């Protein structure tokens, strides 16, 4: 075993050892050296809107309470300071004046308020006074920072801050209104696969042709692994052999497929506006060539979405402006287990947590802007479905059909490595090598610098991480 404690390191950036996805020793190395030191998306902030509202977040055996206090959002380790029993589970409110408000241990009844202060010890006179020191009895704080409508926690007191770790991608997503969106629904499923396999299924567009054929035209030779770059980064590749009207019709059909397949990624209200711009009156005003007409049409769509949603009272960004000033990729990763799929003003949002070497919890949110007073009811827990349920949106359902069988294939006797494209599957390599950096104990400043390179790296190349 290497001195770093990593049994299966990445020795060549284009080759990922298969055993990283099922070996117990490698999984334990992640539990010991990765998860205690990174920022984890713990909850959406609309789940804890009022002072005293709290929710439990757990991962790899560690449970945390995230609570909204008078001084902001805070987090605490979820254990009684008496004998270690968890004092909270699910969600609730710790604010109130009644004797039984706050967090109460179900074992012996010790209590804490929302600020983590111990408020009651049953039979206090039975204990040595030095064991009941006020500071020692307080709930142990966990670092907590907020961004993008979410609370993030980190068990490492010395880790760089959230923005230092993730870098400019947070600012770019902020420019697209990430902090203003609300969750419409929340699905979850258990996948019989390693958490990284599930993450990596969304790190490149190379799989779209085969896995999501409805998103590709049936035109020989038109497959484009970097889908969308012939339309200014949005929509299908342009077909020069079809008319302007046919190309626009295909773009609208593609938006409808994304809407039905991904829900939050392209919202129904946005599709409705785009369809209004498919009329002959609009098409007659477009440039005569397909190469010019389609980008111009998307500009009109983005202007109309911005204007009409603002008229409805939604605080959406100027889409045409931010696409120039703060471009984002089709998928943006918030290392290590959270990612976003932005399109116009709405998002699909994914979080993946390991449940063991070959099982993970996969969650999806639909996120969109809402006018004040018209926010949807906040889902406080996910709708849990079997991974092959037809109730999942089409696109993740298609991805779920690959992930479990890929996990099985990794166990094949002759399969030693994944072989990555250095040009379009680089994000997988970069991601995996950052995990190696944590296992090897690289300095936190180097790890933060490397992690910042993941922003905008979707469908991107292998990069030098500096270690």
Number of strands: 18
> Ranges with pLDDT <50 over ≥5 residues?
217-233
Mass-distribution shape: globular
Mean pLDDT: 90
Number of DSSP helical runs: 14
Largest β sheet strand count, sense and barrel closure: 7 strands, antiparallel
Strand order of the largest sheet: 2-11-10-5-4-3-6
* Helix/sheet category: alpha+beta
Helix content: 25-40%
Distance N terminus to C terminus?
19 Å
**Rg computed from alpha carbons, rounded to a whole number of angstroms:** 24 Å
- Beta-strand percentage range: 15-25%
Describe this protein's structure.
With 467 residues, the protein is of the alpha+beta class. It is 29% helix and 20% strand. It is built from 14 helices and 18 strands. The chain has helices spanning 24-33, 134-137, 162-166, 169-175, 195-200, 208-211, 244-262, 268-276, 280-283, 290-311, 319-325, 394-409, 426-440, 444-452, and strands at residues 15-17, 40-44, 53-59, 62-69, 72-77, 91-93, 103-104, 111-112, 118-120, 141-147, 150-154, 182-191, 332-334, 338-342, 347-356, 359-368, 383-384, 417-419. The protein has a seven-stranded antiparallel β-sheet with strand order 2-11-10-5-4-3-6, with no helix packed on it. Strand 10 and strand 11 (150-154) form a beta hairpin. The radius of gyration is 24 Å and the shape is globular. The two termini are 19 Å apart.
């Amino acid at each position: 075993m290497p001195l770093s404690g990593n049994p299966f390191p990445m020795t060549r950036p284009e080759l990922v050892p298969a055993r990283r996805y099922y070996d117990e020793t490698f999984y334990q190395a992640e539990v010991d050296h990765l998860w205690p030191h990174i920022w984890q998306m713990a909850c959406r902030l609309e789940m804890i809107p009022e002072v005293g509202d709290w929710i439990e977040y757990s991962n790899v055996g560690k449970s945390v309470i995230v609570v909204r206090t008078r001084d902001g959002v805070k987090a605490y380790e979820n254990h009684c300071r008496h004998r270690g029993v968890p004092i909270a589970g699910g969600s609730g409110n710790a604010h109130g004046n009644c004797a039984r408000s706050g967090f109460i241990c179900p074992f012996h009844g010790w209590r804490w308020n929302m600020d983590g202060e111990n408020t009651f010890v049953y039979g206090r006179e039975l204990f040595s006074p030095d064991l009941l020191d006020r500071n020692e009895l307080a709930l142990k704080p966990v670092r907590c920072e907020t961004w993008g409508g979410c609370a993030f926690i980190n068990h490492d007191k010395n880790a760089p801050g959230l923005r230092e770790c993730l870098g400019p991608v947070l600012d770019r997503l902020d420019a697209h209104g990430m902090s203003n969106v609300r969750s419409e629904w929340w699905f979850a499923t258990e996948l019989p696969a390693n958490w990284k396999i599930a993450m990596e299924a969304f790190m490149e567009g190379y799989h779209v042709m085969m896995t999501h054929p409805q998103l590709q035209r049936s035109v020989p030779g038109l497959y484009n692994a970097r889908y969308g770059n012939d339309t200014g980064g949005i929509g299908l590749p342009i077909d020069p052999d079809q008319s302007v009207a046919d190309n626009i019709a295909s773009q609208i059909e593609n938006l409808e497929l994304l809407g039905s397949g991904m829900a939050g990624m392209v919202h129904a209200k946005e599709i409705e506006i785009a369809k209004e711009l498919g009329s002959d009156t609009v098409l007659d005003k477009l440039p005569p060539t397909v190469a010019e007409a389609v980008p111009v049409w998307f500009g009109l769509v983005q202007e109309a979405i911005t204007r009409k949603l603002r008229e409805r009272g939604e605080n959406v960004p100027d889409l045409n402006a931010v696409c120039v000033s703060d471009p984002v990729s089709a998928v943006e990763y918030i290392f290590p287990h959270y990612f976003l799929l932005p399109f116009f003003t709405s998002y699909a949002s994914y979080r993946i947590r390991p449940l063991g070497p070959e099982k993970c919890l996969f969650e999806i949110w639909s996120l969109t802007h809402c006018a004040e007073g018209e926010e949807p009811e906040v889902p406080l827990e996910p709708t849990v479905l079997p991974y092959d349920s037809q109730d999942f949106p089409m696109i993740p359902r298609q991805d779920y059909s690959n992930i479990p069988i890929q996990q099985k294939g990794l166990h094949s006797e002759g399969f030693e490595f994944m072989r990555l494209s250095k040009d379009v599957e680089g994000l997988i390599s970069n991601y995996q090598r950052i995990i190696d950096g944590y296992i090897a104990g690289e300095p936190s400043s180097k790890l933060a610098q490397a992690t910042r390179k993941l922003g905008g790296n979707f469908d991107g190349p292998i990069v030098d991480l500096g270690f």
